[in-house]
Amino acid sequence: MPNEQEYAEGLTNLEKHGNKVDFIVSHDCPSSIQEKIGGGMFEKNRLTEYLEEVREKTDYKVWFFGHYHDNEEISLDNDVRRYALLYEQIIRIA
Fold first, then answer.
1. Nearest to 28 by CA among 5, 47, 54, 9
2. Contact indicator for 68, 27 with CB cutoff of 8 Å
3. With contact defined as beta carbons under 8 Å apart, do 71 and 88 qualify?
4. Is residue 21 part of a domain?
5. In the predicted model, is pLDDT for residue 80 greater than 90?
6. DSSP letters along 5-70, please?
7. Number of domain units in the chain
8. Which H or E run contains 74?
9. Number of Cβ atoms within 10 Å of the Cβ of 58
10. Could you tell me which residue, 79 or 28, shows the higher pLDDT?
11. Model's pTM, two decimal places?
């Protein structure tokens, strides 16, 4: 798990680029996405809450993550961004 300094560094690096990136790639996902795919089965933790903060502050097109051993495209209501849960699937992004 990242420490507080690493969490801060991640946010600082995003701010240096105007909080705008094309893609985000992480192992875990933001708490709101975790809730959507798990329906309460998974507990929020410091990492998923940090990723939720990144989700709220950052402009991006697609967030790719794994961890949950499934292949699924996820969307949240009123959110034009996409979330791609990848396990055995390989996709082209460029």
1. 47
2. no
3. yes
4. no
5. no
6. HHHHHHHHHHHHTTTB-SEEEESS--HHHHHHHHTTSS---HHHHHHHHHHHH-B-SEEEE-SS--
7. 1
8. strand 72-74
9. 18
10. 28
11. 0.92
Range of the domain at 88: 26-94
Here the tokens at position 52 are 């939720």
Place of tokens 């949950």: 68
Tokens describing residue 15: 């701010």
pLDDT value of residue 6: 98
Asked if residue 54 belongs to a domain, the reply is yes
Q: At 86, which amino acid appears?
A: L
The owner of tokens 């975790």 is 34
| Tens digits of residue pLDDT in 6-51 | 999 999 999 999 999 999 999 999 999 999 999 889 999 999 999 9
Tell me, yes or no, whether 58 lies in a domain: yes
Residues with Cβ within 8 Å of 56's Cβ and at least 6 positions away in sequence, in order, are: none
